[in-house]
TrEMBL record:
CDD domains: AdoMet_MTases. It comes from Chryseolinea soli. InterPro entries: Cation-dep_OMT, SAM-dependent_MTases_sf, SAM_O-MeTrfase. Keywords: Methyltransferase, S-adenosyl-L-methionine, Transferase. The keyword Transferase applies. GO terms for biological process: methylation. This is O-methyltransferase. GO terms for molecular function: O-methyltransferase activity; S-adenosylmethionine-dependent methyltransferase activity. The keyword S-adenosyl-L-methionine applies.
């Protein structure tokens, strides 16, 4: 489902800073060579993630769901000088490609890429995060939020992608992933420890700020 008029979308993209040459290539190669390329954040969302990261200047970012590395590179652009992003993905088939992209980016030293199940890796992380991007399997969004919440500083931010799930959150008869997203959105809306705004950017980004323990 497209949420906004095609012409408005084009106009918005024309007034968004272009992708770097590397990001453009990752975007193109992902579409040509990798399964499910729609999972990639893309031009506009990527620039949004970069801007958010620049606003926060995080020392620690956690990304759950690296895929081909596009969004990790966008967020890494805004890291504090001593900053680091930990990005996790379970798909080992993408590892060689992703490591090559990270090496080319010139930001490799700031990227800690872990291949494995985020449900097992997050509890082992001894870090305090300023920014978390939840973008892995929809079924586990609530679990990722619960696993990471105590590791986010008060005043820190979490972003959750695909929370409109192509508009399926409005439908009555829902599948497992849609139900998980609906439940996640309701859980965040009812959590007194956070403030949140659901932005209808691309497939929906739930923007969350931790306000108390
Ligand atoms: C939507 S894609 C991520 C897109 C990427 N953040 C971007 O914007 O370009 C979701 C990724 O989550 C990964 N994933 C799914 N289940 C996972 C799990 N349990 N632990 C870690 N990664 C997982 C998938 O392998 C897939 O690459």
């Amino acid at each position: 489902m497209e949420f906004i008029d095609e012409n408005i979308q084009r106009y918005a993209e024309e007034h968004t800073t272009p992708e770097s040459a590397l990001l453009k290539r990752i975007n193109r190669e992902t579409h040509a060579q990798v399964l499910r390329p729609r999972m990639l954040s893309g031009h506009m969302q990527g620039r949004f993630l970069s801007l958010v990261s620049h606003m926060i200047q995080p020392k620690r970012i956690l990304e759950i769901g690296t895929y081909t590395g596009y969004s990790a590179l966008c967020m890494a652009e805004g890291l504090h000088a001593d900053g680091k992003i930990i990005t996790i993905d379970i798909n080992e088939e993408l590892e060689t490609r992703v490591r090559a992209y990270f090496s080319e980016s010139g930001m490799n030293a700031k990227i800690d890429y872990r291949v494995g199940d985020a449900r097992a890796i997050i509890p082992t992380l001894n870090e305090t995060f300023d920014l978390v991007f939840i973008d892995a399997d929809k079924e586990n969004y609530a679990r990722y939020f619960d696993l990471v919440f105590d590791k986010v500083r008060i005043g820190g931010f979490l972003l959750a992608d695909n929370v409109l799930w192509s508009g399926k959150v409005l439908q009555g008869n829902v599948d497992k992933d849609t139900k998980a997203i609906i439940d996640f959105n309701a859980k965040i809306q009812n959590d007194p420890r956070v403030e949140n705004a659901l932005l209808p950017l691309r497939d929906g980004i739930l923007t969350i700020r931790k306000v108390s323990l």
